[in-house]
Design a protein that fits this description.
By secondary structure, the chain is of the alpha+beta class. It has eight helices and nine strands. The strands form two sheets. The chain has a five-stranded mixed beta sheet with strand order 2-4-5-6-7, with no helix packed on it. Strands 3-1-9-8 form a four-stranded antiparallel beta sheet, covered by helices on one side. Strand 8 and strand 9 (279-287) form a beta hairpin. The longest helix has 14 residues, at 290-303. The radius of gyration is 23 Å and the shape is globular. The chain starts with a helix and ends with a helix.
Length: 307
């Protein structure tokens, strides 16, 4: 059944031709679906300790409510503005047009409403036909830059929630000779395929959208000989690294993680399927016209007015 999935999905898709302009060539509507394959854990012997990591800098998907909250916090005089607490990789402003003759652009990486998802019927079909379990399904608009300027998009919010979700990782979209998708996704599992009681070390949690701001260092009430000694001359308490690792291992509610790292060339308006014994990825990139971008920007401005 799993091997028939690409053919079934492609038979159901009807890509529409969209006229492209200079702006629309760079902006796309992205719909991404990630799901777990039925009985996928029985298909392979997985790498015992996969190399799991997040990118050094990344983008985030935002709900409209989060966008409103961040814009309020970024208003002059707000606490976040004063403390610079918003992660620098998050932009809550609509992308500027290149010149005054181009229409305004919407905020990149803002989640679109569920009713705009074109794969909803396919999701229902997959669940009815084969018991596929949906792990992620979102739609958003974004520019797709050249590879050197493309920043990964983190799909999970484990850095904010401080828990390990089932699906973690990031994707990256960029333009080279072709539109290209890179996946760096992993699924946390209960490890029913593992021998005995062995479990892998916990994977990292994702970056936080709004990292905590460290409180200012306390100012000593009076100057003492000890306070002016170089730090290296004073005994310092070293954190117990092993204790921290043991604590994380106890909190990690899974035994293992399976990694999906692939690179795929894509074409706009086509449905693309990334096959994997345990995980599946379906993605579609639809070019956006200047008129569509302007309409999205107007709807967004009405729903999330700037402070």
């Amino acid at each position: 059944m799993r091997r028939l999935l690409p053919a079934m999905l492609l038979a159901l898709s009807l890509p529409a031709a969209v006229a492209q302009t200079s702006t629309a060539e760079r902006w796309f509507r992205v719909e991404l679906l990630v799901f777990e394959q039925p009985n996928g854990t029985l298909a392979e012997q997985w790498e015992a300790q996969p190399q799991l990591r997040y990118p050094d800098s990344s983008n985030f998907l935002l709900d409209p409510s989060e966008l409103r909250a961040l814009r309020q916090e970024e208003a002059p005089g707000s606490q976040t503005d004063a403390q610079q607490g918003v992660a620098p990789t998050v932009s809550t402003e609509a992308a500027p047009a290149e010149n005054n003759s181009e229409p305004p652009l919407p905020t990149a990486f803002l989640k679109l409403p569920r009713f705009q998802q074109t794969l909803r019927d396919k999701v229902g079909y997959m669940q009815r036909a084969g018991g596929y379990r949906i792990l992620f399904h979102e739609t958003w608009a974004q520019p797709v830059p050249e590879e050197s300027r493309a920043r990964p998009l983190v799909l999970d919010r484990s850095g904010d929630a401080q828990v390990w979700p089932e699906l973690q990782g990031s994707i990256r979209l960029y333009r080279a000779r072709f539109l290209t998708l890179e996946t760096n996704l992993w699924l946390n599992t209960q490890g029913s395929y593992l021998p005995g009681q062995w479990r892998m070390p916990p994977p990292p949690k994702g970056p936080a959208l709004q990292p905590e701001v460290a409180p200012p260092a306390p100012v000593p009430e009076q100057t003492t000989a000890d306070s002016v000694l170089p730090a290296l001359q004073r005994p310092t308490e070293q954190p117990d690294e092993k204790a921290a690792q043991d604590s994380a291992a106890r909190e990690y509610p899974y035994r293992h993680a399976v990694l999906l790292q692939q690179r795929r060339r894509m074409r706009s308006n086509e449905l693309h399927y990334l096959d994997h014994p345990l995980l599946g990825v379906i993605i579609q990139l639809t070019p956006l016209t200047e008129e569509a971008l302007a309409e999205m920007a107007q709807r967004e401005a009405a729903a999330t007015p700037a402070p």
